[in-house]
């Protein structure tokens, strides 16, 4: 359901003033001749005259309200899917970034896939068919999403933000790790709620009065409990008490925050607090915020490690690269407020970046541009290799959205070569399964080694002498 917070206004050319037509509007569209307007208000529709006052009736035909419950549609799935496949094919033909479709005979592709529609028997098979057809283009970002699928029941599990293991001697579950996180966020760590006092080594005996056992785990007790308050029976030493916590629908944000802070501490300890660390999870709003959460606190250290491993892409890479590329060339001295670096917010010392095979799309672009702009060394593994941008805006009849690769990146050194290949690091360092199991990070270790060399070879620009002429 769309919100209805907008106010629809118009300018009266006779009275020469702005007037209100209708409050609480979600969306609207005016007819071609300008005589009528259709207005969406949440999930309701009104058709109104543009030359008359809006009727005061809150329902019914006189008020212009359309009774959508009367609409009945009979759909032949095969006919609908045939039309949708042709529409998806046409959208690619009209919007794909190359008019010659990268040398693919696109009409032949339609002739190849269209007859298969009659042979499919479910909506999911139709999705597979669209993916296969668009895959003939051999390019990234050709997606098919959504559509007329039956809604599935959701039984979202609640998470405690902790790792537990079964203790056969105690016949219950022991907490061996409580995950950290941001206590102010919607994913606040449940077991770090004030008053819980749950800690490593405590036993979880029951959830909502249900005793836990080897056959009945905490995960089973928390099915369909996401975002709910639950009662936990905890045993600390000889003390047994009950606490109330609000379980969260996903503990990934907690684990992400813990991983980032663990890496930052590791860098601090490995460099005697001389080097800063930033991780950027994507190139969208979350990644932009995450970058700035750390950047201002880290830029004045002697060196900086920027980690874009697992970056899922987006569109803000150039905004971040512009800041990282700033070269500190001087300082602006004030008598009472200290020295301001010039340019403002420029890194104090050298910068290196970490990337891997899971950094893609705008993560690819960031990694390649980081090298091309000579900001510093790129360390890790070759990136994902998908840099043809999309602008999803054309829905199919059942609500499906398909994406057309419209904007392909070209670079002065490799041309179109990042697509379907990625970008190579300056220094390749693999992350083996054994490293994960041993909780080692050889990529981060190499980044620390390289940034310390850079600091030695290229000393940061220190502020001027206190003696002023």
TrEMBL record:
<dbReference type="InterPro" id="IPR012393">
    <property type="entry name" value="Tricorn_protease"/>
</dbReference>
<feature type="domain" description="Tail specific protease">
    <location>
        <begin position="240"/>
        <end position="430"/>
    </location>
</feature>
<dbReference type="GO" id="GO:0008236">
    <property type="term" value="F:serine-type peptidase activity"/>
</dbReference>
<dbReference type="InterPro" id="IPR015943">
    <property type="entry name" value="WD40/YVTN_repeat-like_dom_sf"/>
</dbReference>
<dbReference type="GO" id="GO:0006508">
    <property type="term" value="P:proteolysis"/>
</dbReference>
<keyword id="KW-0963">Cytoplasm</keyword>
<dbReference type="Pfam" id="PF14684">
    <property type="entry name" value="Tricorn_C1"/>
</dbReference>
<keyword id="KW-0720">Serine protease</keyword>
<dbReference type="InterPro" id="IPR028204">
    <property type="entry name" value="Tricorn_C1"/>
</dbReference>
<keyword id="KW-0378">Hydrolase</keyword>
<dbReference type="Pfam" id="PF03572">
    <property type="entry name" value="Peptidase_S41"/>
</dbReference>
<dbReference type="InterPro" id="IPR029414">
    <property type="entry name" value="Tricorn_PDZ"/>
</dbReference>
<dbReference type="GO" id="GO:0005737">
    <property type="term" value="C:cytoplasm"/>
</dbReference>
<protein>
    <submittedName>
        <fullName>Peptidase</fullName>
    </submittedName>
</protein>
<keyword id="KW-0645">Protease</keyword>
<dbReference type="InterPro" id="IPR029045">
    <property type="entry name" value="ClpP/crotonase-like_dom_sf"/>
</dbReference>
<comment type="similarity">
    <text>Belongs to the peptidase S41B family.</text>
</comment>
<dbReference type="InterPro" id="IPR036034">
    <property type="entry name" value="PDZ_sf"/>
</dbReference>
<dbReference type="InterPro" id="IPR005151">
    <property type="entry name" value="Tail-specific_protease"/>
</dbReference>
<dbReference type="Pfam" id="PF14685">
    <property type="entry name" value="PDZ_Tricorn"/>
</dbReference>
């Amino acid at each position: 359901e769309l919100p209805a917070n907008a106010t629809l206004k118009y300018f009266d050319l006779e009275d020469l003033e702005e007037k209100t037509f209708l409050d609480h509007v979600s969306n609207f569209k005016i007819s071609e001749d300008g005589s009528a307007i259709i207005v969406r208000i949440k999930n309701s529709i009104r058709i109104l005259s543009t030359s008359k006052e809006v009727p005061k009736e809150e329902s019914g035909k006189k008020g212009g309200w359309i009774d959508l419950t009367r609409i009945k549609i009979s759909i032949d799935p095969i006919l609908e899917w045939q039309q949708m496949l042709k529409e998806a094919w046409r959208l690619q033909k009209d919007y794909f970034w190359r008019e010659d479709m990268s040398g693919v005979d696109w009409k032949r592709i339609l002739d190849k896939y269209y007859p298969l529609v009659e042979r499919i028997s479910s909506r999911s098979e139709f999705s597979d068919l669209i993916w296969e057809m668009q895959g003939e283009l051999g390019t990234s970002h050709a997606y098919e999403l959504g559509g007329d699928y039956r809604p599935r029941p959701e039984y979202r599990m609640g998470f405690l933000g902790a790792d537990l293991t079964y203790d056969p001697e105690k016949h219950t579950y022991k907490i061996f790790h409580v995950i950290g996180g941001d206590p102010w966020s919607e994913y606040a760590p449940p077991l770090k709620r004030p008053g819980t006092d749950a800690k490593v080594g405590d036993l979880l005996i029951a959830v909502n009065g249900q005793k836990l056992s080897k056959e009945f785990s905490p995960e089973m007790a928390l099915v369909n409990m996401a975002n709910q308050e639950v009662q936990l029976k905890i045993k600390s030493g000889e003390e047994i008490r009950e606490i109330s916590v609000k379980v969260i629908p996903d503990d990934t944000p907690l684990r992400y925050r813990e991983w980032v802070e663990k890496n930052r501490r590791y860098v601090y300890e490995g460099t005697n607090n001389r080097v800063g660390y930033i991780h950027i999870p994507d190139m969208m709003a979350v990644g932009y915020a995450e970058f700035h959460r750390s950047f201002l606190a880290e830029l004045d250290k002697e060196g900086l490690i920027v980690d874009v491993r697992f970056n899922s892409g987006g569109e803000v890479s150039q905004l971040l690269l512009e800041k990282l590329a700033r070269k500190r060339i001087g300082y602006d001295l004030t008598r009472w407020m200290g020295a301001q670096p010039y340019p403002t917010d420029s890194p104090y010392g050298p910068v290196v970046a970490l990337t891997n095979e899971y950094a893609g799309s705008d993560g690819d672009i960031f990694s390649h541009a980081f090298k091309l702009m000579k900001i510093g060394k790129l360390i890790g593994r070759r990136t994902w290799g998908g840099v043809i941008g999309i602008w999803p805006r054309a829905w199919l009849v059942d609500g499906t959205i398909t994406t057309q690769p419209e904007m392909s990146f070209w670079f002065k050194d490799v041309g179109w070569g990042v697509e379907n290949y990625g970008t190579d690091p300056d220094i390749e360092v693999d992350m083996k399964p054994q490293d994960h199991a041993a909780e080692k990070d050889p990529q981060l270790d190499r980044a620390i080694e390289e940034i310390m060399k850079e600091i030695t070879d290229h000393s940061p620009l220190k502020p001027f002498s206190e003696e002023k002429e």
